Inverse folding.
């Protein structure tokens, strides 16, 4: 009976170790994606600012 329990515990330990590795890899991927999203957000903010500025300038030009 103890051997069966030990085998089951060993199997659980192996599965949990694999799950831990997968969770760590997923965490790393999420960190990478967050960095990419941060850079993308900065670039879209800059583009939005430029578009707003150009729209104001176009409005000013068209009113003349």
């Amino acid at each position: 009976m103890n051997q069966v329990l030990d085998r089951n515990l060993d199997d659980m330990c192996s599965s949990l170790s694999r799950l831990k590795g997968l969770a760590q890899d997923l965490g790393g991927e999420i960190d990478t994606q967050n960095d990419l999203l941060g850079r993308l957000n900065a670039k879209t903010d800059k583009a939005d600012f430029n578009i707003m500025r150009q729209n104001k300038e176009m409005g000013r030009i068209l009113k003349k």
The chain is about 95% helix and 0% strand. Residues 11 and 22 are 17 Å apart (CA to CA).
